Amino acid sequence: MTVRQTPAQTEMRMLPSLGVLLRLAWGASRRPLLLASVLEPLGFAVAVVTSVALKWIVDLIAHGAGWTLIGAACAYVLSISVMFLLQGAGARQRMTLAEETGSALETLVTRAASGVGLSDLERPEFQQRLEHYQQQRERLSRGPGQMVLLVAQALRFFLTVGLLAWAHPLLLLLVLFGVAPTLSARWNARLLAEAEQRSVAAQREARSLVNTIGADHARAEAQLYALEEPLRQRLEGLLSSAGLNLERARLRAVWRTLLGWTVFGTGFGAAVALMVQRAALGEATAGDVVLVISLASVVWGQIGALVSMVTELGQLQRAGGHLLWLEQKWQAVSHTDAGAGVLPAQLSSALTLEHVSFRYPDAAHATLNDVSLELKPGEVVVVVGENGAGKSTLVDLLLGLYTPTSGRILLDGLPIGPAHREAWWTRCTATLQHHTRFELTLGEGVGIGHLPDLHSPGAVRQALALAGVPHPEALNAGGLEARLGASWGAALSGGQWQKVAVARGMMRPAPLLSVLDEPASALDADAETRLNTALIEAARRRGKSGTVTVIVSHRLSLAARADRIVVLEDGQLREQGRHHDLLAQRGLYSELYRLQQARHQL
């Protein structure tokens, strides 16, 4: 059942949506906002004065005035000059306002996207809101300036209507004729918005498909599996579906627009005819006729401008609604558990998972189910299990990238909630399985792991050494100053990129938690063994300051050197203990170890 909202409800929804834009503009670009709000309305008010000056000139010509006519002509020229000066200066301020508001928008949306957990970020609703924002970014940037322009246009319109009423009360009917194009514009805005909403899913899938097809690795597979033609047809189908919906809506909008303007054109012709008749009867001057024709033409243009601005305001309100949702989402997360306590500087007791479960958005089953685990200060823990057991999800939860569906994560007995997320991230370091390949210099790509030491070559070299790279030139002949990445002609192998990521994770000194998720998966067996040995040694050194190190690894020979092994299966904690103890139990770990040992022997 569709619930239709009343105009009052729509207005209440519109005010916060537009308010978030005005707050951003006020905070980021106060001076241009104030100047535009003064200059443009004045410029549009002076535009009305030019019509009065023109009437004065025509009447003076009819009476044969001399020097007074010259004064009136000068006043007319001056009013036009002032009008263009004010409107031009106001337009420049609006351009500055749009640029600075756009920067503030990017900051707000980035903060909203980075401030929430990955579980929120991966929700379809969140993705759709971000998609809408990307589509409407330019409109939102111009939004505050458009609101200023709407005020200026409205001021000019009401001044014009006032002069028409002064010329003859019947001319006010011209405004009523303008209702037709106004209504058609509002209907068209709703019609087009609904069509865009129906098309957004197809457009998003098409964009994703284009990005996939454009990737180097995708082109190879597309050729290998003869997918180029099917993918092209699918892309064309998506674009056709999205375009057809929009084209039908636009065609209907054109017919409504033509009908609305035909009605107004009829009123315009009647207004001019009325003034010509009054002039013929001696009830109005030639200047009055010129004034009404000039004002009626302005009304024509102003109706069109106001219709366009009202349409834009409606679209801006909808776009602002997505922005407001993102801001409220971030505020809700940032205020959750506020005042719950400050995280301790050092781990003295344990990092604890207490009956933690987690299910991804729209997933049928939980990825982790009722996991309870205590991680002691200085402990080196290796998490093992088959693919899909929940290993990466477990470490993502420990890092605060996800929020448990149920249960709690505690640091020395203090629950780590969303309000602690950013503070917790400053106490952690991680090498993720799907790490980012920053195309920076080698020194920067490692140094960003601890920004205070970003430009410290000694700290960067030490981190690289811990990652099994004692000489930076082994990764690139240019050393720390070499720019990395294919864009710079310095493409690294997957294993080399992984070493850069591992070194980045070694930059932060004495973290409370260090996570390494399959840190050597892109390396060959010998290099993997050497790196794992280096990582265990680094973890031992860090453990002296209380750092808990959690390593996810498929290599069980690494697990044998851990203080404790955690075995996951189907999202549940099946076993935990030291290597020899787990082998003696002849359980899941023992079976996995024997299978891997036999495979390596073969």
Keywords:
65% helix, 6-stranded mixed β-sheet, alpha/beta, disordered N terminus, single chain, 602 residues, 4-stranded antiparallel β-sheet
Description:
It is a single chain. The chain has helices at residues 7-28, 30-62, 67-115, 118-121, 124-167, 173-177, 179-214, 216-224, 228-280, 286-335, 391-398, 421-425, 442-447, 457-466, 494-505, 525-543, 556-559, 579-585, 588-601; strands at 351-358, 368-375, 380-384, 406-411, 414-415, 428-431, 513-517, 548-552, 564-569, 572-577. It is an alpha/beta fold and 602 residues long. A hairpin with a 2-residue loop joins strand 9 and strand 10 (572-577). Helix 1 packs across helix 3, helix 7 (179-214) packs across helix 10 and helix 18 (579-585) packs across helix 19 (588-601). The longest helix has 53 residues, at 228-280. It is elongated.
Please list the strands of the largest sheet in the order they lie side by side. Answer: 6-7-8-3-9-10
Spans of at least 5 consecutive residues with low confidence: 1-13
Tally of contiguous helical segments: 19
Strand content: 5-15%
* Helix/sheet category: alpha/beta
Report the span from N to C terminus.
65 Å
- The number of distinct β-strands equals 10
In this structure, how is the largest beta sheet organized?
6 strands, mixed
Order of helices and strands: HHHHHHHHHHEEEHEEHEHHHEHEHEEHH
Radius of gyration: 34 Å
Overall geometry comes to: elongated
The percentage helix is 55-70%
Oligomer: single chain
What's the rounded overall pLDDT mean? 80
Brief write-up:
By secondary structure, the protein is of the alpha/beta class. It has helices at 7-28, 30-62, 67-115, 118-121, 124-167, 173-177, 179-214, 216-224, 228-280, 286-335, 391-398, 421-425, 442-447, 457-466, 494-505, 525-543, 556-559, 579-585, 588-601; strands spanning 351-358, 368-375, 380-384, 406-411, 414-415, 428-431, 513-517, 548-552, 564-569, 572-577.
